[in-house]
Specification:
Elements (H helix, E strand, L loop, with lengths): L1 E6 L3 H12 L4 E7 L2 H11 L3 E5 L7 H9 L8 E6 L5 H8 L4 E4 L4 H13 L6 H14 L15 H11 L4 H8 L3 H15 L4 H10 L14
Helix pairs in contact: 2-3, 3-4, 6-10, 7-9, 7-10, 8-9
Length: 226
């Protein structure tokens, strides 16, 4: 079962999400909260797999709540799916920067919400990579400082760097395997090594690092998965 917390300052939104997710055979709703303070408290209490987190809330917003939760030793397995009204939103960028695993637009369909929770819970794919990639490119283009290579980047092999670039393009492990003509197991091994060497939690952080370090140039087209 995927244990989920729902954090949103709108009661009707929380109730709708809870009813929808709670009706799934593989998802259980452990709790609901109205702001970031609730998120931090309930996350420690329930240790959820996924937190569906609104970004813009009174008091403590979703960004600060995400930062505080993911800083805790017990939160290693927690994944945060942030909600936003706009697909290009600086708040979303900041949420990804502090460790959120992906984001979802509030006008998403019921099926998209359920699928998003499952995807983030697996930790093996970034939700809506084409939108996330555009978001990151837009905000990295606005940053005029020279990209800084993070510690560990120079330790990547040529193949591992190639895998990082493909992750940044939104490709899944299966798509990367087809592109590189290797097994999916081999890709998983490369991905695990990239994450270990760069100290990454998940694919969302890998995308952020690839753009911010200059491994992927802002404004360049994503690799074609076909």
């Amino acid at each position: 079962m995927i244990k989920v917390l729902i954090i949103d300052d709108q009661t009707i939104v929380r109730a709708g999400f809870a009813a929808l997710l709670g009706a799934q055979d593989d998802i259980t709703v452990a709790g609901e909260g109205a702001d970031g303070h609730d998120a931090v408290r309930l996350a420690e209490l329930h240790r959820p797999d996924v937190i569906v987190m609104d970004i813009r809330m009174p008091g403590m917003d979703g960004i600060e709540a995400t930062r505080r939760i993911l800083a805790q030793p017990w939160a290693e397995g927690v994944r945060i799916l942030v909600l936003t009204t706009f697909d290009v939103d600086e708040y979303v960028y900041e949420a990804l920067a502090v460790g959120a695993s992906g984001f979802l637009l509030k006008d998403a369909t019921a099926d998209e919400l359920v699928a998003a929770v499952r995807v983030v819970a697996r930790g093996d794919a970034l939700l809506a990579p084409q939108v996330t990639g555009r978001l990151i490119r837009e905000f990295t283009k606005q940053r005029r400082t020279r990209p800084q290579a993070p510690p560990g980047l120079e330790t990547l092999t040529a193949r591992e760097t190639e895998v990082l670039v493909l992750i940044a393009g939104g490709l899944s492990n299966a798509e990367i395997a087809r592109r590189l003509v290797v097994s999916e197991h081999t890709v998983k091994t490369h991905v695990a090594r990239v994450f270990t060497k760069l100290g990454l939690r998940d694919r969302a952080q890998a995308v952020m690092l690839a753009y911010e370090s200059g491994v992927v140039v802002p404004g360049s087209s994503a690799p074609d998965p076909s």
